[in-house]
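Is iron/sulfur cluster placement plausible here? Inputs below.
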Amino acid sequence: MTYVILDSLKVETMKITINREECIGCGACEAICPEIFQLAEDGKSAITEKYRKSHLGHGEVGEEHVQCVENAKESCPVEVIETSNP
Ligand code: SF4
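Reply from A.M.:
I modeled the complex. Tokens:
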């Protein structure tokens, strides 16, 4: 039996979770990656509407935003941004 892996069909996505309860609202993630992160009315970080999924602190982005999100994650002083591949 022969298996063919079609790399071109593989879509890279990344899931993002912000632990909003622990967010201190410093704004670093928004400054570094404003297309994905923004401070919400409560002063804590949220995923922008375009990329948001089930709630303010949950989202999913495509390959083109992975680096930006990783940079924001590394900049978070309280390490409350988590990422994973679906
Ligand atoms: S960098 Fe971290 S602590 Fe600062 S606003 Fe973003 S999620 Fe909150």
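Short version: The pocket of iron/sulfur cluster is lined by residues 18, 23-29, 45, 75-78, 80-81 (CB under 6 Å).
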